[in-house]
Protein: Asparagine--tRNA ligase
Organism: Filibacter tadaridae
Amino acid sequence: MKTIMIHEMPDHSGETVRIGAWLSNKRSSGKIAFLQLRDGSGFVQAVVVKEVVGEEIFAKAKSITQESSLYITAEVTVDERSTFGYELQVKEIEIIHEAVDYPITPKEHGTEFLMDHRHLWLRSRKQHAVMKIRDEIIRATYEFFHMNGFVKVDPPILTGSSPEGTSELFQTKYFEEDAYLSQSGQLYMEAAAMALGKVFSFGPTFRAEKSKTRRHLIEFWMIEPEMSFVEHAESLEVQEQYVTHVVQSVLQNCKLELERLDRDVSKLEKIQAPFPRITYDEAIKFLNDNGFDDIKWGEDFGSPHETAIAESYDMPVFITHYPIGIKPFYMQPHPDRDDVVLCADLIAPEGYGEIIGGSERVHDYELMKQRIKEHGLDEAAYEWYLDLSKYGAVPHSGFGLGLERTVAWISGVEHVRETIPFPRLLNRLYP
C-alpha cells in the first residue's frame, strides 16, 4: 500500500492509501467521528464510520487525544464542501504516540503564552499558512533572480565594520579583535557585483535596536541584490518587477493558505509594476498638508507618516531622493542637487511600512573617502571597500528587502513575530 502525504491526495482519488499524521482536532457522535489531521503538507478531514470500521477502531478514534501521532489507512474521496476538495474514509487507525495534556487547546490563549510555546504554536493552521507563504516568497525570490541572471553569493555574518555605523550592532569578540553580527551584507555584495555583475544574497541580519513595534525584530532575514552598470532608475524597475513576481507567485501557489488567513486577495491582485513614485519633498508637503505638522524637511519618517502616505495608494509606493543627512555614507548624491541622494524606500500598502530600501552607490574614490570621513568612520576599516572605487569603478545600485515585513504584508498578519519560525524580540530569546 502506498504511503502518501496529504498534499498528494488529489493524485490518488478513489484509492486506499496510508498517511502519517497528527490529530489537530476532532468531533464525534454515536456512530461517526470526524478527525482533523495534519502532516505538515496540509490539513484534511478523516471520517470514521462505526458500521464500517467496527467497535474497536471506532473506540480508538473517539479516544485519540489532540496532537497524538498516528497512521491512517483510508480511501481518498472527493469532498466538494471543503476548500481542500478531498477527505479520507477511514479503514484502519494505528496510534504511534499518544499526546497527553497538549497545552495549546482550541480555546483562546494570550500572546505571551503562545510565544512561550512557539515550538508548538507553529502546528496551528494559521501559523502553518504563514510559514507556507514565507516559503513561497523565498522560492519565488530565487526563481526571479536566477531567471534574471543574478548569482547567489553569501556574505559573512561576522564583520569587522558596518555599512551604517556600529550603534545598533551586536558586538562580540573575534579572538583578539572586536567583531559585529552583520546588519547587512551590502558592502560585501558590492564587491561580489564587481566580480560577478549581478548578485543577490539571502541571509540573517541583526539589529540591536530597542524597539517593540509590530514591525521590528532583533533577528530577521534580508534579500540583498547588487547590480553593476545599473543606475538608480533601472534599479527601481528591478525592485517593482521583483515584488510583483513574488506577490503573483503567492497568489498562484498559496490559495488555500491565503483563504485560511482570510486575506483579501483583491488587494494583492492589484499589485503590478510599475509602482507610483513620489519624492521626499512631495512626501513632506503631503504630510504637512494633511495634519502632520510635526515632520520637517530633513527628518526621517516614522510609522505614522509612512502609513499616511501609503493610504493614498492601493499599491506599494516609492519615496525617492531623501536628504543626504539622514542616509548612509555609501549613497550616490543627486547629480543636480547636493542635499539629496539617489535612493528610494518602498512602502507597502495597508500600513505595513517600508519593505525595501535601496540606492545607487557612490563609485567615485575621492567622494567615497570624503563621505567615510564625514560620517566619522575609520577609513582603515573600510580600506578594502575603498578598493572597489579605486580599481575599475562603475555605476552600480542595490537594495535590501526585509523578508518578515514582506511576509506580514502579503499574508495580512498584524505582527512580524508571526512571520518567522522563532522570533527574536527585545524581551524574548526563548524558545
